[in-house]
Each structure stands twice: as C-alpha cells, then as structure tokens.
Amino acid sequence: MTERAKAVAAVGAVAAFWLAVWIFAAALVAQPLILPGPGAVALALLRLVCDGGTWAILAGSGARILGGLALAAVCGGVLAGISSRSRAFARLVAPALSFVKATPVACVVVLLLIWLGSARVSIAAVFLMALPGVYFSLVEGLAQVNKPLEQMFRLHGVRGWRLFCAHTWREVLPFVLSCAQAVIGMSWKAGVAAELIGMAVGTVGECIYQAKLLIETADLLAWTVLVVAASWTCERVLVWLLRASGPVAWRAAVRSHGRGLHGRAGAADVAELALAVGDRAPWAPALDGLVLNVPAGGRACVMGASGAGKTTLLALAAGECAPCSMMFQDARLVEDASALDNVLVCADARVDASSAAALLRLLVPGIDVHACTAELSGGQRRRVEIARALLCPGGAVILDEPFTGLDVAARDATAEVVLDLLDGRTLLFATHDASDAQALDISDIITL
C-alpha cells in the first residue's frame, strides 16, 4: 500500500470512528430535536445544496467575509510597514491592537451594530478580528528579514517593487502563511457570528437563527457543515495562492533585472573611489584618518590581518558609489533559487540568461546553472557570487576575499575571467594573501 493510500485509509478510519460516535450518541439521546442523526442531517444538507438560494446566500456572506479579510490584510500590511520603520509608531499602535485582539467577538459585534447597523456588521467584525493577527505576524516577519541579503540587493540597485518581490515578500511569506491558516477560519466564525447576532437579512447568520428559532436542529447542523466546508475551501485556496506567490514574485524580479539601471556601457560609467574614513569606523583603529583614492579604471588591493578593518573599508567605499558591483566576505545568496537566477536578479539590463549561464559555466566548469545554490559547494558558491558581481550595473567592482575556498588553479582561472570582464571598471579588492593581488595584476597595495 502506498503512502498516499495509507493516509487516505487513516482519514477514513478517523471519519468512521466519529460517525459511529455520532450515531451512538443520537440513539442514546433519542431526541431528534436535540441531536438528530447523520441521516437526518444528510437529508437537510442535500435539500440545502439543491436549493439555488442557498448558494446565493453563502456567496453573499462569503464575499462580505473575504472583503473584511482583504481590508484587514491591506491595513495590517500598511501599519506593519510603518511600524517596522518607526518604533514610536509601533509603541502607539500595538496596545490598541492587543486590546482588540483580546475583546470577545460578541462585544465587538454589539458595538458595531450600534455604530454601523446590521448590513455592514460582518465586514467590520471580520476586519477587527483579523487585523491584529495580520499586523503582529507581519511585524514579526519584517523584523526577521535577512538584513545582509537586503543590503546586497540595495547595493546592486534592486529597490522598490523589485526588492519587495525578490527579497521582502519571500522572507515574510512564512509568517503570512502561518497567519492565514489561523485567521481565515477565525474570520468565517466572526463573520457568521456577526450576521447571527445582527440578524442581517439574506445571510447565513439569519438562516442559522431561523433554524434555531424553529428548532430545526438538522437544518442548523446542515448550515454548520456548509459554513465549515466553505471556510476550509477558502483557507485551502488562499493558502495555495499565497504559496504560489513566492516563486511568481521571484520570477518577476528576475525577468525585470537591471530595470532603470545602467552600468557597463563604457568609460563614461566608470567610477572613481574617493573616501575619507575620518571617524566613521571607531571600532577599526587602523582606518582612523585613512583616505582612499582609487582613480577611475584603477585597481587597488587592501591587505591586512583578520579584524584590521578591510571589510569595513570596502563597505564604506561601496556606500559612496552605490549602485556598484560588490562581492561580500560572507555568502549572500538566495539559497532556494538557482545559481543562474541569483546572478540575473542583480544583473545589468543588457545581460541575458544565455550570457549569464555562459559566464557561470566558464567560472564553474560542470555546474548545473539551474541547480539551487544550497546544493553547491563552498567554492562553487563563491564563484557564483563573483559572476554576479561582474554582471551587476555600476562603475566599480568591489571584491572582499573573493578567492576564499579556491585552490591555486581555480583562483588563477577565476582571476583571469575577472580581468577579462572588468571592462575598464574600477576594482577594489581585499585579501590577506599577496598572491591573490598578483593574480589580479594589482600593484597598488593599501596595508592596514
């Protein structure tokens, strides 16, 4: 028996168990008005399903519930975005939403009935019940965003909606999915409860209230089954759409690489690196008062022991000439994306997939460019980042310990490719090994 068949059999066994419990309890009570059996509920459900009016009522209630949920998603996203940038705003908003989160649904509905009337109460109730969950989930997600990876994207000119698609949404999506699985079902409960309390005409809540009023328990349970099925279906569909949105957003960011940026056209784009460190790096005494000046099209190497401040100096220089091409000392790759996409997402607009793939195969012989970077070795990952730096827009290329993990033959081959593809751009390079500078034909050495 396959795993899928075993899972289906397990679900069937559980359903059969609870059906047997229901039959036994109904027989024990022997009062259909109190607890009708499965047969009576199934007949009531069949009658409702065959009635076109049932679907119109269910669709109307569902539309109002989804409307409140959509409004909560939009407002929660806006508030979370502002809160992630303003601690004072977060301190102001969080207590109010915590209060709303702790308030019983019935109290909220009664107040909304006084303020809004029964026609709009379900939308408002769903909005208020879902908003805290959306807000706090997004705030937590935004707080957990990978900041070094975000810095890499921004430095390479990936900003605005492309940054959101390539990085922010993918980082926040797990929190959004967790929130959706909790909030969607709760929204249906709040919406139907609001309709029932408010006795809004032509709603699921009104039908449940009428069934209770006429003591039609089988109809009441049949409506409950319909609401549960609608809530379950809605949750599954929305969660599936959310899961699919991550890869779709990433592909959109990759396809639009380099939009609005130019950097490899010719000498006019070459950047001069001029930087007076001053007191901007008090944690690195070796940089105190240092003045960096690399002429346009020049090459310079920063050398020094670990902790001397090489990475800090390169980061300061990158900030002065962004967008530029930079390879960081630590790995900054999107792990579940392919090597090719990691290169393309930051590449100049004039770089196409075939040329990026050709460069990757040149730097990493035998590489599957469509393989996830998480599957690559450390040396392969370093060379993927070198390829990305060489194809990014910007008049300067900054490489921080790029040959770490490479043997001498691989280093020399990689250095040759770097020299071929500089296209006259300025090169700033950091290493602790003098032979790395020789491989790149750099004579201007800055020792820290």
- Which of globular, elongated, flat, extended, rod-shaped describes the shape? elongated
State the share of residues found in helices, binned by percent. Answer: 55-70%
CATH superfamily of the largest domain, called what? MetI-like
In terms of DSSP E residues, the strand content is 5-15%
Structural class computed from helices and strand pairing: alpha/beta
Detailed description of the structure:
The protein is an alpha/beta fold and 448 residues long. Helix 3 (52-85) packs antiparallel against helix 4, helix 3 (52-85) runs parallel beside helix 6 and helix 8 runs parallel beside helix 9. 63% of the residues lie in helices and 7% in strands. 40% of the residues are buried. The N and C termini lie far apart (67 Å). It has three domains: 1-30; 32-255, MetI-like (MetI-like fold), CATH 1.10.3720; 267-447, Rossmann fold. The chain is built from 16 helices and seven strands. Residues 262-268 have low confidence and may be disordered.
Summarize, please.
The protein has helices spanning 3-29, 38-49, 52-85, 87-102, 105-116, 121-143, 147-155, 160-198, 204-213, 217-255, 310-321, 339-344, 353-363, 378-391, 408-421, 434-439; strands at 273-276, 291-294, 299-303, 325-327, 396-400, 426-431, 445-447.
